[in-house]
Structures are given as C-alpha cells and as structure tokens.
Amino acid sequence: MKSSKKIVLLLSIISASFFSSCNEHKSKEKEVVKKEVDFQMMENSTMGDDNRVSLKLNPMQKNHQLMNMRDHLDAVQNIVTLLSEEKYNEASKIAYTRLGSTTEMKLMCASFGDKEFENLGLKFHESADKMSEVFKSGDKNKSLKALSNTMNFCVQCHATYRQ
C-alpha cells in the first residue's frame, strides 16, 4: 500500500510539473508573437466594428484584389514547403516572381488611389525581393527571418486596410 501511495504521489508531482511547464511555454509564445505584430486593431474591435481604412473598391477591383491576395498566400505556402525541403533556389524564384516588386505589382499598388496603401504595398514587394536574395544563401534561419519580415507587411496591411 505504501509503494502505491508513493507512485501516485510521484505521478502527481510529475503531472503538476509537466502542466506547469506547458503553461509557461504557452505564455512565452504569446508574448513573442505580441512583440512581433501589432494586433491592437483586432483587440479593440468587435466582430461588427471594423475600423480599418476602406479602399472603396468596386466589385471588379475587389475580386481582382482577392485573387491577388490568395495568390500571395499560395506563394507563401509554397515557399514554406520549399524551405522545409531546403530547396532555396526554387523558393527564391517564387518569392521574386510572385511576391517581388515586378512592374505589374508596382502598377497594381499605385492603382488604388491611396498613397499610404501604395507605399505599404511597395515595401511588401521590396521586402520579397530582399527575401528572394536571402533564400539564395541557403541559410534556413536567415531565410525564415526574411519570410517573417515580409509577412509582417502582410499583417500590417490587413490590420490597416479592407476592401
């Protein structure tokens, strides 16, 4: 009987220690994410209260912009896969051709009539150009940092603007 009590006590201590360390890890993760991204807009709004700046797009522009955003998201997903497979040159090509500051993307950013939106869009595309170059180094940590930097522009834009 004494040995079974010791086992139960030992398991209780191990379980408490495990759950305590899990909670510590979760709070640290949240803290890091909060430092990287400003979620103020999301924290201060309710589901029906969207205080982002409207770009006042017509239906055709909205559809075109939505297709563009989905393509950007698909490109990022492909890049993540290629980085995980250490195919840096392929990831670089996707970053440059689908996210980079091509003439088409520059014209697209300028077509919305909002100078701040245009500047943010251009910074995003320029960061993708830099990211493309970093990928060529074959350094996974630098590549992930460059991807994070580019995605921070995505978060900033989507937190600031709506169609």
Automatic annotation (TrEMBL):
Q: Give GO MF terms, alphabetically.
A: electron transfer activity; heme binding; iron ion binding
The Gene Ontology biological process annotation of the record reads: electron transport chain
Keywords from the UniProt entry: Signal
Signal sequence range: 1-22
Superkingdom in the source lineage: Bacteria
Name of the protein in its database record: Cytochrome C
**Which source organism?**
Aequorivita antarctica
